[in-house]
Amino acid sequence: MTVTPATHSADILIVDDMPDNIRFLSSLLIEQGYRVRKAINGKMALTAIQTIQPDLILLDINLPDMNGYEVCESLKQDEQTQSIPIIFLSALNEALDKVKAFQVGGVDYITKPFQLEEILVRVKHHLMLKTLQNQLQHQNQELQTTLGELRKTQAQLLQKQKMLSLGQLASGMAHEINNSVGFISSNLKPAKQYIQDLLELIELYQQEYPYPSDTIQAFMEEINLDFLEEDVNQLIGSMQTGTERIQAVILALRIFSRLNESEIKSVDIHEGIKSVLVLLQSRLYPENKPPIRVVETYNKLPLVTCYASQINQVIFNLLNNAIDAIEAARDRLQAASEAPTIWITTTWENPDLVTIKIQDNGIGIPETMQSRLFDPFFTTKAVGKGTGLSLLTSYQIIVEKHQGQLICVSAPHQGAEFKIELPLKLTTT
Ligand SMILES: Nc1ncnc2c1ncn2[C@@H]1O[C@H](COP(=O)(O)OP(=O)(O)OP(=O)(O)O)[C@@H](O)[C@H]1O
Ligand SMILES: [Mg+2]
To answer: Are residues 371 and 311 in the same domain?
Structure first.
């Protein structure tokens, strides 16, 4: 790296009450290519510095109003001016003054009468130091930005990888289960028919041979034929309901991941929400706890052109967070006899966008935490329970990918509300 400090066009402020000194110093510095401003007392100096910040200050200690130390102290207290290098000028060369000059924040000290070469060398040296310091600060800032970007990219990659393997797993499983359930459901109908036929056959036998042998009689009693006839139909019925439910979950999984469809699609947002709710059934109806009520208020929405599976992913993330927040507030809700509830509301008020609101009466989010919600890896959940990536991913999907909005409104103990504003048409960049 080459350092090319702009020492020659640097702006230097000379503060001295002796016109001769000012004249001497300024002609010397102007000759070297520096830009020079002058002030004859402390107040003027401070005003000049506030108006335009110089790159370096040559500051006399003995000034009429405030002395040089005071001017220096005042500049060091102000964040804007504290890094301007100050070289003290003085005829007083006692050790005590020099020490004080450094104590109040000066970087150097030149004594009168001035040595031409010495002044130039010191000025150049401190301007160079200041330039280096600025460069370091700038690089530090760039590093911080890069680090932030890196963390975001790492988070994105992690989440993408997770979703990709989850998606593949889900699609593989859906395929396998679908095939197997297909056998069962397609065989159930003939099985029911066969059983009916067999039962009718038995009945015919009973009519034709009303006096069965003792062995047959004993077996009929053992199997409780009357009950069996009645129960077998119910049994087949519940097997049918079971397979229908499995098929509904598989369908939801397919809608949710939309793996066999092109990425950008015009979709019915409500269909996506419903598929997510099916997949979250076990969390909404937990064992040994009151179920979580879901209040769905769906207004008429147009089809939305979007990355459908990603929008479903966002709804899934927000609902999962809402359930987590409700689980963490179970005791409070029970004490207040309040039903654990999630409200999902969709609206189409602005012609160009639809709104999806997901609200819960869980633990809520303290105001101090709200600005950090979308930071990579920000989580309040126990290790292994939360990765702190879902909201960041959701934000990236809604705001960066779809040019929409994802807004959080919450107060502690009053639940949280996340609002998605999704443009009807995706503008690809
Ligand atoms: N509905 C909500 N109510 C209360 N707090 C919430 C809600 N949604 C998010 N939060 C807070 O925001 C944090 C970040 O949420 P995010 O979904 O990004 O990560 P996570 O849920 O902790 O982990 P994961 O990445 O596994 O979902 C949560 O840890 C939680 O503190
Ligand atoms: Mg989460």
So the answer is: yes
